[in-house]
Specification:
By secondary structure, the protein is α+β, with helices and mostly antiparallel strands. It is about 30% helix and about 25% strand. The protein folds into two domains: about 25-190, Aminopeptidase (3-Layer(aba) Sandwich), CATH 3.40.630.30; about 205-380, Aminopeptidase. The chain contains nine helices and 17 strands.
């Protein structure tokens, strides 16, 4: 198995009267970009009494404001926070984050950045969200359909003015938001975005009565009971803030071994994980299965928001596979998450990375995840080309 804050606003930019833009009043443009001849015709979905302004993120001016907005948003996660994105070394990505204001009020943020096209001959400027994170796309409060349309229209004007030719947006699955609303998704589809790919992820719903263990398949429950009964030396250590660093030092070498078995490497270096711990002390939770004092398996959780705990890494010493330590971890992780008030445990995507089609499901992995009462949820990417 491969297993709230002052709203600091930028000044309106002033442009020559030679531009004929319906959003310009006495030379002052109501969005922070120059008018662009390629922009679509202005309609009710483009402008209202308080037009949407697009402002490029600046750390000194916006970092606190951004992260406070994420905390009160409807669909934000830790992956959208600037405090999270700061773990990347300077220069690793060409970040180009955006804020969207309706009058003086911040109504949306969009983390992301610029990269070149996918092929050696493709020199198109591409905006991708997320960049350097698991989830991205627009973060909002509970906004109306009209506001969603206005946000997307303003974003499109900005993209055209910047000469960006491709946009990719990957949002978190719907389980990460408390309200069932798809106003933003509709606005993007209405403006010509289309799904470029879907990944199948699996999540365990913790909102049922009783313990999650009660809903595991019988074979999984049997394994957990047997190992617990017959192996008194097997126990699970749960990280605390003061013990996490030392536990990561034990966890990471085994994770490297697991990834090497599949000719892969972890997304994060050990230094990345240490940096994340410094920036976001409550972001990670680590469970280690031990035989005596020896670590034999582990699960590293990223606590994405107050609804979802994401199992980002599993690791296992295969010599101890007969003890079914991953089963023990699933029992402990789901029990802990439910007690802490989380609604879901996200076990991550289940794709066959060896197949040419990136959407090909890893059915054996999916079968394993389903033993723990997980259900498939989509992690989807929207795309639009702005060529021409």
């Amino acid at each position: 198995m491969n297993l709230t804050a002052d709203l600091g606003l930028s000044y309106y930019q002033t442009y020559s009267a030679k531009f004929s833009c319906p959003l310009c009043v006495n030379g002052h443009c109501m969005i922070d970009i120059a008018p662009n001849k390629g922009s679509p015709a202005i309609s009710r979905t483009d402008v209202n009494d308080a037009p949407i302004r697009v402002v490029r993120y600046e750390r000194v001016a916006h970092e606190t404001q951004w992260d406070v907005f994420i905390e009160r948003s409807m669909n934000g996660t830790a992956f959208h926070r600037q405090q999270f994105l700061r773990y990347h070394p300077e220069g690793r990505f060409d970040f180009h984050h955006l804020l969207f204001f309706e009058g003086p009020r911040l109504v949306a943020v969009l983390p992301g950045g610029l990269r070149d096209g996918a092929s050696m001959t493709d020199h198109a400027r591409v905006f991708e969200s997320p960049l350097g994170a698991s989830y991205g796309s627009f973060v909002t409060e509970d906004i109306s359909a009209q506001t969603a349309l206005d946000i997307v229209a303003a974003f499109e004007r900005y993209i055209r003015a910047q000469g960006i030719e491709e946009v990719y947006l990957t949002s978190a699955p719907v389980i990460y938001q408390p309200l069932l609303t798809q106003n933003l998704e509709f606005a993007l589809l209405y403006r010509g975005y289309a799904y470029q790919r879907h990944y199948i992820s699996h999540a365990i719903d913790l909102r049922h009565p009783g313990t999650p263990f009660d809903r595991f398949q019988s074979a999984a429950r049997k394994h957990i009971r047997r190992v617990t009964r017959e192996n008194p030396s097997v126990w699970i250590e749960e990280s605390q803030p003061e013990s996490l660093r030392e536990m990561l030092l034990e966890f990471y070498p085994i994770l490297l071994e697991n990834k090497a078995k599949y000719h892969a490497t972890p997304t994060h270096t050990l230094e990345d994980l240490f940096r994340l711990q410094e920036l976001l002390p409550d972001f990670m939770k680590l469970f280690l299965v031990r035989v005596g004092e020896e670590p034999v398996a582990g699960s590293l959780l990223f606590l994405a928001n107050d609804r979802v705990a994401l199992i980002f890494y599993h690791m296992l010493r295969y010599a101890f596979d007969s003890l079914k330590p991953i089963y023990l971890l699933m029992d402990n992780v789901t029990r802990w998450a439910k007690e802490e008030g989380y609604h879901f445990v996200d076990i991550g995507v289940s794709q066959d990375t060896s197949d040419e089609n990136p959407m090909t499901p890893a059915l054996s992995l999916i079968h394993f995840k389903e033993k723990f009462d997980s259900r498939g949820v989509l992690r989807s990417t929207l795309h639009k080309s702005y060529h021409g």
